[in-house]
Write a structure and sequence with these properties.
Order of helices and strands of chain B: HHEEEEEEEEE
CATH class of the largest domain in chain B: Mainly Beta
CATH topology of chain A: Ferritin
Largest sheet of chain B: 4 strands, mixed
Low-confidence stretches of chain A: none
Mean pLDDT of chain B: 82
Largest interface: A-B, 17 and 14 residues
Number of helices of chain A: 6
Structural class of chain B: alpha/beta
Radius of gyration of chain A: 15 Å
CATH class of chain A: Mainly Alpha
Number of strands of chain A: 0
Number of domains of chain A: 1
Structural class of chain A: mainly alpha
Order of helices and strands of chain A: HHHHHH
Strand order of the largest sheet of chain B: 2-1-4-7
Shape of chain B: globular
Shape of chain A: elongated
Number of helices of chain B: 2
Radius of gyration of chain B: 23 Å
CATH superfamily of chain A: Ferritin, core subunit, four-helix bundle
Mean pLDDT of chain A: 91
CATH superfamily of the largest domain in chain B: Cupredoxins -  blue copper proteins
CATH architecture of chain A: Up-down Bundle
CATH topology of the largest domain in chain B: Immunoglobulin-like
Helix content of chain A: over 70%
Oligomer: heterodimer
Low-confidence stretches of chain B: 18-33
Number of domains of chain B: 2
Strand content of chain B: 25-35%
Chain lengths: 170, 119
Amino acid sequence: MKNIGIVVASALFLAAGSVAAQAPNDAQIAHIVVTANQVDIDAGKLAEKMGSTKAVKDFGKQMVTDHSGVNKQAVALVTKLKVTPEDNPTSQSLKSGGQENVKNLKTLKGKAFDKAYIDHEVAYHQQVLDAVDKTLLPSAKNEELKALITKVRPAFVAHLEHAKMLQSKM
Amino acid sequence: MRTRRYRLALALICAGALLPFAVVFAAGPADAASAAKPATHRVVIDGLKYEPETLTVRRGDTIVWTNKDPFPHTVTAPGKFDSHDIAANGSWKYVARTAGDYAYICTLHPNMKGTLRIE
């Protein structure tokens, strides 16, 4: 479980760290946004099926709905701007971290699954918020891309609070 | 047949008799009519905020919340009113009935808060 937190942290630390070395361009930021959402959609789908309580299943379902909505809008924006999202090391780390999380969650059942999933959601949303504040927003050049990230940021805050609330009851 | 004609004639006479009143009403002062008429207010949900956050209305007014975010929200004052999920780009209508201050939230994102004041 700790490993997963470290993978998430290091993936997004890479995003934060890359500011000093080389700030991501808009095409890379778009790719990071879409990947970050997709990673949480995949975990949410699993929680909808495997969660042992209604609260955990509902949370998973909401993650799928909310992050799919954000991605739909992100894809619409890049299509409008004629930007092709560009793969990059941050996206790759997010993706492999997400795959590792899902792989680990699939080995768990019942309360152990719930705890591992929710712990990861708390860490993940915290790290995504850090990346948004320290890397994605300061680096984004296009105003509409910046506006989209700004607009959906409070959703990540709400998800983090919600996940923490569930965590405190476990 | 005779009865039908009689009725038709009667209807025309009545319509004719009412016509002058209809004209007077149509030409009547617009202000008086709109003051009594319930208003429709709009609240936009955008970027996880209710805009305006506090809205004051009169009893009988209609409030329409429209969700501009790409995912669902709710307008919920526990025990008072509940929109349930309002889809992206969807809206929900509520008619103000009882005076009071109603604090509401989004049950999906409880950090979203609004107030409806019914006078």
